[in-house]
Amino acid sequence: MQLYYLWRNLAISLLCVGVVMGGAHILPYYMAPALSLFLCGMLYTMIWNNNISENSGCMVVVETMLYSLLSYTFISIILVVIQVLDLYHFPNEIIFFNDPYLPSLILLPTTLAVTLYALLFKKSMPTYKFFRSLYGGSKERGYFGMISNRETTFQLKNMVGLFAVLTAIIWYYYLNVYVNVNQNGRDWYVFLWIVVISVMLDEVYFMMRYYNLYLDLQEHNEIITPEELRDVTAHTYLRFYVICGEYVYVDKDAFDRLNQKKGVYDTPFITKRTVNGIPTTEVKNIVERMTGVSGGELRFFFGRHLAGVDKHSLLRYFYFLDGDISDYPQLGEKGEWVHFNDVKRIYNDDPLHMATNALNDLSRLSTIILTERTYDEYGCRKNKIKSYKGNLTLADVRRCKLDFQDDKWLHIADFNSDTKFFKFKKFLRELAGKKSRSAYNK
């Protein structure tokens, strides 16, 4: 189903291009903006329903097409207004009050520009941020999370290439071959059917691509049916970060299951229990048995369900030890004490040398603490010196009383007073939020 949703979102998005162009040929030309706005409403409804669904997916491609159609509509209307005010006279083919009107001349380059922006700045797209805040990063969501992230990027690259080629073909034909005296069958083939056929072939290609991917996953026994999902045994995975002063206990030769890579930095204290949820007292007994040290301070970090399976969860904890690392020369698992400055250096300079979960956990930890230190709850800077960058220590982590399960500070890290046009964008978000809540309450 997840593979189907990947294809469906792309197919509907590409189909909108064909509908806009075909509709402009069938309907009266002045209905073109109304048709594109209707499709925008449909795409927005898809995104809204996805966000409130229990099985939501990443909607970056759908959002990209939504912005493309909005941009096309806005540009088309602006061109008409400029011509009506007699400020400039454009070719008849790009003014939707004229006959013939060729929407591909505006729609294709506009979609190319928006798609290229989405490809370069995918992580800044609202739907991407929403999905990441809800389910974590792509690597946190397991193997399919990485597949989904990779395929979304590939879809955007494919759309950039497709619309770049179609834009070049149509504008070359318009400037060098087309005669605006009388349109013939060849003109309609270039301006309409070559686009529709290309879009349909692209959809067929991705249909075959995801079917073959499904067969590959099935062959390697990596597909789970809804019936199996309901019967799956509950598992709770535990990760403990053992800390003493400014040192953290690390296995430098760990195996990263997500990347299938050995020789990475990770905590050696990882275990699994066949239960759905574990009392804190039992968690502390587990870490004391694993480390061989009792009397430490256990602190909950945060937890996530794995890959959308409610019965599988991964919980992270800190286990703080008092005294000096010389008091604990060797703990219950293979590893050694590493200064936190060295861990941060690896995180910044060679992140691939860290296990995926450890990398994501450190990123979340540092982002939340440093963001709370830099900004208030409204996203405004506490320190007006923009060059100021705080330093994170393990003493800060132990003293910190923040709720790391809450994504509030992650949202503020993405959107704060250092963002361009912060106040204006914040006003628009608050306005959109009020309208959304009002519609929901109705």
SSE topology:
Elements: H1 2-26, H2 32-52, H3 60-84, H4 104-120, H5 126-135, H6 142-176, H7 185-219, H8 226-231, E1 235-244, E2 247-256, E3 261-266, E4 269-273, H9 280-291, E5 297-306, E6 309-321, E7 336-339, H10 340-349, H11 356-374, H12 394-399, H13 408-414, H14 422-441
Helix pairs in contact: 1-2, 1-3, 1-7, 2-3, 3-4, 4-6, 6-7, 11-13
**How many H/I helical runs?**
14
* Uncertain stretches: 434-442
Percent in helix: 55-70%
| SSE sequence, one letter per element | HHHHHHHHEEEEHEEEHHHHH
Number of strands: 7
Radius of gyration using CA atoms only: 27 Å
Average predicted local confidence, pLDDT: 84
What does the main sheet amount to? 7 strands, mixed
Instruction: Quote the beta fraction.
Output: 5-15%
Give a written overview of the molecule.
The protein is α+β, with helices and mostly antiparallel strands and 442 residues long. It has helices at 2-26, 32-52, 60-84, 104-120, 126-135, 142-176, 185-219, 226-231, 280-291, 340-349, 356-374, 394-399, 408-414, 422-441, and strands at 235-244, 247-256, 261-266, 269-273, 297-306, 309-321, 336-339. Strands 1, 2, 3, 4, 5, 6 and 7 form a seven-stranded mixed sheet that branches. The chain is elongated and about 90 Å long. The model is unreliable at 434-442 (pLDDT under 50).
